[in-house]
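HOLO CASE FILE
Compound: 3,4-dihydroxybenzoic acid
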Amino acid sequence: MEAHLSSAIEIVGASQSQLVHETPELKQIAANTIKNGLPPIAIGPSQGALLTILCQMINAKNILEIGTLGGYSTYYFAKAVPGAQVTSLEINPKHRDVALENLQVAGVADQTNVILGPAMEIMPKLLEEGEVFDFVFVDANWEEQAEYVDLAVKMTRKGGIVFVDNAVRALTQRGGEGGKRLIEKVKADERVTSVLMPTLLTYKEHLETAVDGFLMAIVK
Ligand code: DHB
Ligand code: MG
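Model generated. Tokens follow.
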């Protein structure tokens, strides 16, 4: 007898939460982020585990994050590989302040640099300064995913990874324009090998938000 989708989500979610361990630091970051009224749109612990595994596979010591929110994913990147340094860009001053507090309390202030401002202004500056990253995590304005990826690939070493969160919902929601432009851009991009991976976010209550996924590209 096959499980219906809603019970499948519950079954898989229960198993997922048995596998992943959310540290007290992560629980504190998540709680303080919500307490400060930031939206509940951070990654979950299973995605944190995936990002950790990817970073460990490629020994990602220099990470760029587009979209800090409260610093929940920032913390995973800081902890994945010993001595990792994370540059995280955030456009919203309130989010930046909450993230700075969270990362300080969690003990990774010295490994993280949260820069306030629009990624489309800061990324070209980092590129000009010759910054090279092992891993770029794009988790910001869905309408600009294509532009972020184009710049990110220029700043990523050979064998490095550009990971775009919510690339599936950027196709299925809000008119789908952001996601479509991302696919159009990446399919013609000979600098990378890429994949679009649907995922099931078992902690989300509604199907339209539970079905999401990411685009991942490795730089040739
Ligand atoms: C939204 C943004 C995200 O980065 C995410 O992971 C989920 C939802 C949003 O803007 O709704
Ligand atoms: Mg996201």
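CASE NOTES: DSSP finds ten helices and seven strands in the chain. The radius of gyration is 17 Å.
CLOSED: yes
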